């Protein structure tokens, strides 16, 4: 009322001395000034009321801003004991609870109750679900809590072919990268994630199925190790994503592996044991057979196995070991190869297989011994059914004309998968086929490679490095690789 009155009186006085245009300008100015004053007064009253009601809102807000942000760190429980073998890794005790600092890779970065930080394989960890719901702080945990899968990639599907597309869901989550032996800085807020790998994509996409298969494995008496999920993935791949069929296959295979001692062989192989240490008859078999297990790597990174037939005597084999010893030795060879293939797969980010080279130069009718075939060979011919998705290329080189007859004697004992993987090469095309399968530096000179004698690394992996050199030189005297050992 006072303001309105005053404005009216001033306007009346000015109208007497100013022109209509000047009076209008002055009225506009007065209106703007009045509105500005009213706005500031209203804001002041609101501010005073809020302060009186809340007991000092500005002070509280300032205190909250200055208070340190307390982040909840997700936790996980160790599923079993694990001994660290590297300065970057961390030992685990069963049921131990650890803080998860980074779970974006196959090896998680964790911290134990003593404050030690290191990496552990993720398949040894069980997340504490309450913490996952309350504190999805790492990228992978956040995705699981929010159920928001990142964009799908198709490079893994192209690599393994359409037969395994069932193993990838319609929209798989972004995969963790495989461990490359690099430790992230624990003090950093986040770890840089390297480019995702094909194998990591498959493991992540089938993560829930692999957890259930792990339960099947343990329920059948099997053991969990650092590369168990890669081993289980081979069953899913062989069954084209059919989890139920893979579980049945896994259960039966685990019971068989326990009965024949293969579980212990894998444990020793992963611990770095030589092939000779896995079965007592391995050395005897390799002394009478021109075989070189894990002789370097094929081009896909998997272990390369070379078997020559010149000088091969089935009778000598049967005189040296029993059929049970022969089977045990071949199981040891498969377990040694599988451990190497799984470890290589984890390091390279791509599922690798074992490859075979069979050189048939010198093949003769005397080598086709029916007693050997029906009591020895028949026991090992179907071993591939116990090692799904493990055998890759099977290259039969330097095959003579008699090869067709010899192959006819064993064809029925071989699985359809093995027969489909076999590639038979005549002498004229053998060297090119061998170099396409493996680099020259991983092949003996007798097969067109660069190795004049067995490399020291191969001798160590096998166990030949412990054998007296004079004894080694005397072996395989009738073969083209004599003195190679």
TrEMBL record:
Q: Where is the CRAL-TRIO domain?
A: 295-455
Q: Note the InterPro entries from the entry.
A: CRAL-TRIO_dom, CRAL-TRIO_dom_sf, CRAL/TRIO_N_dom_sf, PI/PC_transfer, SH3-like_dom_sf, SH3_domain
Q: Does the keyword Isomerase apply?
A: no
Name a Pfam family for this protein: SH3_1
Q: Does the keyword Transit peptide apply?
A: no
Q: Where do the record's region annotations for Disordered lie?
A: 48-72
Residue ranges of every copy of the SH3 domain listed in the record: 71-130
Source organism, top-level taxon? Eukaryota
Which keywords does this chain's UniProt record carry? SH3 domain
Name the UniProt record assigns to this protein = SH3 domain-containing protein
Organism encoding this protein: Emiliania huxleyi (strain CCMP1516)
């Amino acid at each position: 009322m006072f303001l309105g009155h005053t404005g009216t009186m001033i306007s009346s006085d000015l109208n007497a001395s100013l022109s209509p245009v000047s009076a209008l300008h002055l009225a506009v100015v007065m209106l703007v000034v009045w509105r500005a004053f009213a706005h500031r007064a209203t804001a002041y009253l609101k501010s005073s009321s809020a302060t009186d009601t809340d007991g000092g809102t500005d002070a509280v807000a300032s205190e909250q801003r200055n208070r340190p942000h307390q982040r909840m760190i997700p936790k996980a429980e160790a599923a079993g004991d694990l001994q660290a073998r590297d300065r970057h890794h961390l030992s685990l005790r069963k049921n131990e609870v650890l803080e998860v600092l980074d779970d974006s890779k196959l090896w998680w970065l964790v911290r134990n109750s003593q404050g030690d930080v290191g990496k552990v394989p993720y398949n040894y960890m069980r997340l504490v679900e309450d913490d996952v719901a309350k504190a999805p702080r790492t990228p992978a945990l956040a995705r699981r809590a929010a159920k928001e899968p990142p964009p799908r990639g198709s490079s893994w599907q192209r690599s393994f072919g359409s037969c395994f597309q069932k193993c990838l869901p319609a929209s798989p989550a972004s995969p963790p990268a495989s461990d490359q032996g690099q430790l992230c800085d624990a003090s950093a807020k986040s770890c840089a994630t390297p480019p995702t790998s094909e194998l990591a994509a498959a493991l992540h996409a089938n993560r829930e199925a692999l957890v259930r298969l792990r339960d099947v494995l343990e329920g059948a008496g099997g053991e969990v190790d650092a590369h168990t999920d890669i081993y289980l993935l081979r069953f899913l791949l062989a069954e084209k994503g059919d989890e139920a069929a893979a579980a049945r296959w896994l259960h039966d295979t685990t019971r068989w592996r326990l009965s024949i001692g293969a579980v212990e062989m894998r444990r020793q192989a992963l611990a770095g044991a030589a092939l000779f240490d896995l079965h007592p008859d391995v050395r005897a078999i390799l002394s009478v057979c021109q075989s070189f297990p894990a002789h370097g790597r094929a081009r896909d990174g998997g272990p390369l196995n070379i078997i020559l037939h010149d000088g091969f005597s089935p009778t000598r084999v049967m005189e040296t070991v029993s059929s049970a010893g022969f089977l045990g030795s071949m199981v040891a060879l498969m377990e040694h190869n599988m451990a190497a293939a799984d470890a290589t797969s984890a390091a390279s980010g791509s599922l690798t297989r074992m490859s075979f080279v069979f050189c048939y130069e010198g093949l003769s009718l005397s080598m086709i011994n029916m007693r050997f075939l029906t009591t020895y060979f028949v026991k090992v011919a179907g071993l591939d059914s116990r090692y799904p998705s493990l055998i890759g290329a099977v290259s039969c080189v330097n095959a003579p004309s008699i090869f067709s007859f010899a192959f006819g004697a064993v064809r029925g004992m071989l699985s359809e998968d093995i027969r489909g993987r076999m590639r038979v090469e005549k002498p004229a095309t053998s060297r090119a086929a061998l170099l396409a399968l493996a680099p020259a530096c991983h092949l003996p000179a007798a097969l067109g490679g660069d190795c004049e004698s067995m490399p020291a690394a191969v001798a160590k992996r096998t166990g030949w490095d412990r054998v007296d050199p004079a004894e080694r030189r005397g072996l395989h005297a009738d073969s083209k690789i004599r003195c190679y050992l």
